Amino acid sequence: MLPVALLILGLFGVLVLMRDAVENSETLSRAFLPLLSVVLAGLAVLAVLVAVNIVKLVRRYRRQAAGSRLTARIVVLFSLISLLPVGAVYYFSLGFLLRGIDSWFDVEIGRAMQDALVLNQASLDLNQRLLVKISEQLLAGIEDRSSTAIALSLNDLRRRAGAIELTVYGAGGQVLGTANEDPTQLVPSQAEREIHHSVRAGTNYVGLESGPGNELVVRTLVRDLRGRPMLLQGVFPTSARISELSNRLEDAYNRYTELAYLRQSLKLSFSLTLSLVLAFGLMAALIAAFHTARRLVAPIADIARATRSISDGDYEQQIALPRHDDELTFLVASFNAMSRRIAQARDAAAHSKQAVETQRNYLETILGRLSSGVVAFDEGRRLRTANPAALQILALDLDETREPVTLEGLERASPWLTPWTETVRRHIAEAQPWRAEVTLQRDETSQTLMCRGSPLPLPDATQRGHVVVFDDITSLIVAQRNAAWAEVARRLAHEIKNPLTPIRLSAERLRHKLLAKAEEIDARLIERATGTIIQQVEAMKAMVNDFSDYAKSPRLQAEPFVFDRLAREVLDLYRSAGVPALRISLGAPEAQVRGDPLRLRQVIHNLIKNAQEALEGRDEARIEVGTELVQIDDTPYVQFRVADNGPGFEPQLMDRLFEPYVTTKSKGTGLGLAIVKKIIEEHGGMIGVENRDSGALIRIRLPVWQATAMAVHGREQHEA
Question: Is 302 helix (H, G, I), strand (E, B) or coil?
């Protein structure tokens, strides 16, 4: 690189000399051509070097050698970086120079130079005519022609006129008086005799002459305007600035004429010089690009090769440090340190991964065995984690391959989860630990969740998530409620049942003692009163028995049986009793359930009885009873339906129908549906009610214990 650097510096010096040669027209013809030959030879050498480097780069690029692409990119960038500004400067400079040279030799400029010369001459002529007028006025101002008077007045007139010398001549040419700014100059400077004769003939004289010290002075010689035989000679100084400008104007005009003659040669010289500078800049940039690329790419290529080896699993790669202590050396040293640290971190990462997997499996095992649901949300309220209990409680089916679902997505997929999602969304916004009870209504079932939540810090310190833990306490609430109502029923049955027997016995004794002795009117009154007492006591006994049944928790005598057979046996009793409104459609033959037939028989009786009481006094009464097989969450159920065309349930009581002592009838304890619900839940089933367009519908579902193909597809219908 040293010879190349010397060549570039030499070419730069030659270009500087060419610039000076172009600026000096006298040396242009002598020095320009030799300098041009030297520059062309140097550029040819640089072009050969660039071509050799380009050929080598193309060969390495085709072989896909390490660093070849980066070298090509650096060379192209250097070329563009150098060519764009230099080219822009070349384009505008060449245009400015060519247009500037043309503007130098414009016709108007040449004419202006000539006009400047004429103007200079006219200015001098005007100044001389003015001095002639001043001289005439000075001569006219002399009144006394005596020598003494003239000598006294001339010096004053000279000072006022700013003249160097004033001299008055008589008719015979004798000097009448003279005044000079130099007191030692006693003899006036004489004009030529021909000038005197010409002035006396009637033509005043004015002209430029050389004075003392080769300074230009203006000499005037005028005759008297009043006709007196006198002449006045004045010697006036000229402005040094005017003299200097006159000389410079003459030199500039001569220079302009010379350059106008060399106009085309100047344009060619400037254009060629700028073109050579452009070529020199581009060649120098390319040479610098190749040199810089080699220095930059050599360590980078080594790093690339070592990186490939590291990617293949060889973490022991070390690269030799460059000779120069610069950023590349730091990069190579950092790479060597990195490779050593990677080798060290490999083992640490393996141990950490094993520890993380162990911890992850530990947490997954714990979360998977929890009966409480656990879900975690990120800052964008997207569901990130949910344990199996949470999926089961919320009846969610999440695809792990899809993106995390948001609270809004859960609402759209499962609208019945809206109360839970709204509660979670509200407390997430508050960013505080919280506790709330949420009730969900899904189909005919109600589900109560006890939820607890807290902000959850995420790995990114700038974000915070939220964790929600919830338990399904529906069964607990139902059990507590049933236990409370059972205790109430037990106490009521105990308190009411004790006085019923004495009341009945007392009424019968009154009837027995007084009925035979009383008159007819009183006998009828006693008969009616005691009968009412006995009748109400029996009603109270029935109510007490209902209380006892609700309070008792008899042990189920569970056994598998075909539900349709049990239902048909009960319904046949009503059909044989002549109930005309009964319509039967049993569609689950051979579908077995496991339970207590006596308790389930009581359920069917209660439901048919409630339907009959709802239809009392109604024309065209109709009770529809049917069974069918249904699938809910991949679990088969036997569904038993009882529907009537009565008035239906009151809307405000729909949520409380299965609570004890809630009834829509004027007579009754309100325990019928509560007992039904209790029996169904003891069998692991579900019960729901709804109002139809006409009447009410009660639906019971019991899990199938065993179902055959015939039970699934068969259907038996009975019309009454």
Answer: helix
